[in-house]
Amino acid sequence: MNEPIRTVGIIGAGTIGASWAALFLACGYDVAVHDATPDAGEAFVRGYVETAWPALSELGLVKGGTERISFHKQPEAVAECCDFIQESVPERLDIKHALFARIEPHLKPKAILASSASGLMVKEMQEGFKNPARFILAHPFNPPHLIPLVELLANERTAPDVLEQAEAFYASAGRVTIRVRKEVPGHIANRLQAALWREAIHLVKEGVGTVEDVDKAVSAGPGLRWAVFGPNMIFNLAAAGHGLDMYCERFADSYHRWWDDMGAPRFTPEVRAALTSGVAEEMHGRSVAEVAKERDQIIVGILKAARAVREAKR
After folding, report:
1. pTM greater than 0.90
2. Residue 263 CA: distances (Å) to CA of 96, 153, 196, 276, 312
């Protein structure tokens, strides 16, 4: 029988790790944190949690308090006391392998170690373990205390019950999980956003639109629909009740023409300069913190509105 999860570890307390810490604290777990910085990430994480707390409260996710957090200078200390560990150290195999080899002897027998890695593959990261049976990928979207999605991936070297336990754990934290059924670079969600961004960059590079107008084309257009349903369901609803097959038949020539004309830009110095100057103009003199605050406020509003609609239908 699986033991209940009471203490959650955060190893790697940058932006992603701090956001995870805020979420798990809000959900009532004890949280143990380690970061490679001299103060084990304490100053940054405490500040991040304080900033995130109002949004978590507004979403009704706060069941615990911010006092249930501890900071540890050695990752072994986190491994020894935690039932579930969310690893978010830098996206480099050498760093991850060194960490895994270091903490593996100290992990509880039934503990799950989940990596937030956005681009590395499970089979690559597993090479850092003698026995990777309790290791999985659990990739969030930034900021994970607000964006519900968590992509889960295991393979034949993973113990049979680990994914199910992880799904239940993330559900307890209000997350929405999907399983990546076949391992590919970038998983699912990152590949989708990479495909969109590639064409967004191409449109800027070719002078079709400014950085700001291309961003507006997404946020004021399809982005609103995608906050409700994914593209397959959206197009299923766009064929006057005849469904996705009819939509594909009706618009095949158009899509084939568009796809054939899409670009494949690279981050040359010229492209980077154009994007950087364009997004600076789009910020209209605001700081990164101000824009991030606006993003979070809008995300909270969308989540609350979606929840209200779904609860009213029950």
Report:
1. yes
2. 34, 31, 11, 19, 44
